[in-house]
Each structure stands twice: as structure tokens, then as C-alpha cells.
Specification:
Elements lengths: L14 E5 L2 E4 L4 E4 L2 H4 L8 H13 L10 H13 L7 E5 L2 H16 L3 E5 L8 H5 L4 H4 L9 E4 L4 H6 L5 E6 L2 E2 L5 E2 L2 H14 L2 E5 L13 H5 L5 E4 L10 E5 L1 H5 L14 H16 L2 H15 L7 E5 L2 E5 L3 H10 L2 E2 L8 E4 L7 H13 L3
Helix pairs in contact: 2-11, 3-11, 12-14
Length: 376
Amino acid sequence: MSALFQTYTPFPLVMQSGKNDRITAADGSEYFDFYGGHCVASTGHCHPEVVRAISEQAARLLFYSTAGALPLREEAAGALLGFAHGSGLSKVFFCNSGAEANENALKIAHKITGRKVVMGTVGGWHGRTLACLSVTDDDKITRPMRHWLLPRRSLPLNDYQALDQADFSDVAACIVEPIQSLSGIVACDPTWLRSLADKLRASGALLIMDEIQTGVGRIGTPYACHHFAVQADLLCSAKGLASGVPIGAVLMSAEVAGALSAADLGSTFGGGPLACAALLATLKVIEQEDLLSNVLKREAQIRAGLQGTVVRAVRGRGLLLGLESEHAAELKKHLFEARILVGGSNNTQVLRLMPPMTLSEEAVAALLAAVHRFAP
């Protein structure tokens, strides 16, 4: 018996290695990876620039906590703010994961506003830590923890009437995924999202943009806040931020940062030298290889090529896409048999595509050919 506690049901293959948009199994077979380790393999598997940066940093200084001043950590924070240029955010707090980033953002909101109520959206999914569970709409994981959770309200996504009637006077913050992923790739209406930001600001509540999946170029802009033209008070980033090395970040406005003291936040491993080296290499690859353009090119190729197939709609933007089909379960199995990895969602009629942003034309052609061959 395995000593490992099983969480998710893994793909039915033993993974051995990866390169760009492909995974090689232990038996030598290759799979096009449209799952990307769940949005994490942003620059592809084992990008040489990222591997080199990690290797050189590991030989130089593997780790030191924030008790030690590291120029690399400062450089990584500056580079991240530069990448997010135009977002109106001016300080970075590094942690280790998306859940930690969201947890700290919610804690910051409580600290600044003094309010206890947190708000999420119907269908929102933000992580498994306690504050994150408080704003996550997934009864199977939140119900057992109900007595531990924060007082919360839930706002229906893109519902203007509910937004008009909502009372934010006792709300510390509302946390929003610009594109909900696990619920089946459900995008915010840009006007609705901007109206929400205006109402929160007028009531003294904060807007937290959960960009764990939509960030780092995933939808063809540096962050979704750029595409939606929304000013967040706090923006949370993780997943593809360091191409697979665990890291999370909370980007905050100058006003938010100015309301905090140094003792309010802390993380032993957050912003470690290995993760910061990988982050810098990731941002360098995104810029040098113009991956934002590649994201949009591959999206257009996928949308055009799926017309007239069992996929009745393509949801989302960039390379965070949902393939809507009444035959989703069978299609997922068919794609795996064609050696193409895709993800499911809480919507049984939506498959998710979250591939590396280095996704090749060849990989997309293989996906399209396999979908066209599918006969339910």
C-alpha cells in the first residue's frame, strides 16, 4: 500500500518527464498537456531558462527566510509590479500558494476595515484554508467546517438586481474570480464587475481580485484586472507565477499597504530565493517569447477549429477555456485515449483547458483533430 494519502484521482498514467506542452509517461508514451498541472506550467514543462535559474540559485543559496535581506527578493517584487504595470498596485507580500495569498488578503481586509463579514460569489472557489473556505461556494468541503468559518454573504455573479440590493456596510471585502474556473469557466460581466468595485469603494469595503488562475498572462493580459479595467485593492497571484515552484503573492495598493504594520504579515518560506529566481525567469520568458500574443493566437485557433463539433460553446478567454458539451465526460475519455490531457469541472458539461502558455500549434491541431473524430 502507498504511504501517500490520496487527494484527487490522478490521470491514469505514471508521469515521468515533461517538455514544453507534453508529458512523457513511464512507458514512453507522450501526451499533449492541456491541463498544465492546473494552470501552473505557465512557461511549459522544464523551460530551459527556468531550469537554469533554479539550478544556479540552488547552488548559490537554497534558502533563507525574511530574517535575511535578499536583493533577489526585492528584485522579484519589483519585477512583479512591473509586469502588473497599470494595475495601480504598489507593494507585494510573498507567501507559498494561492490559498495563502487569499487567506492573507482576507485577513488584511479585516484588519483595515474592522469588519467581520466577508463576501464571495455564487460559484466562487478560493481555497481550503479557513478564511478561504468562508468565501468558497462548494458545500461538500465547507459544510463540515461551518462552525469554524467567518460570517459570510454570497453575491450572484453578473446579477445587477442583486448587486443593487446588496448591503456592503458591514462587509470587510468581496473576493471575486474574474473568470470562475472550477465552476465551469464562468466569466464576470466587465460592467458588473466595475459596478461592484464602485459600490465596495463607496461603502468602505475592499475588492480582492482572486487571480490565482487568471493571472500571469493566462488570459492574454498580464492580469485580468487589465482586461476588465478594474482597480482592485488587493490582487492575489500564484499558480503559474514561478512555472511550478510554489509561490504566492498578494499585490496591494499604496493605501492598503500604508494601513499595515510590518508585524501584520509573515511567512517563513514566502519569497524564498529559489522561488524568486523561478519567478524572475518566468516573467523573463513571458516577455522574451511574447507569450501573451501566443495565448491569444492559440485561443483563436481553438475557437475557430471547434466550430461544428460536439463542443457547443467555448467559454472563457485566453488559455483558461471551457469546452461546453452534453457529452463532456465521454469526450474527456476520448481525448485521453488520443493522448490529450484536459480537466473537468464542477459543471459536468464543461471541460477545462489550462495548458502552458507556450502551447504549440501542433498541440492545438491534435486537440482539434481528436474532437472532430469524436462520435458520441
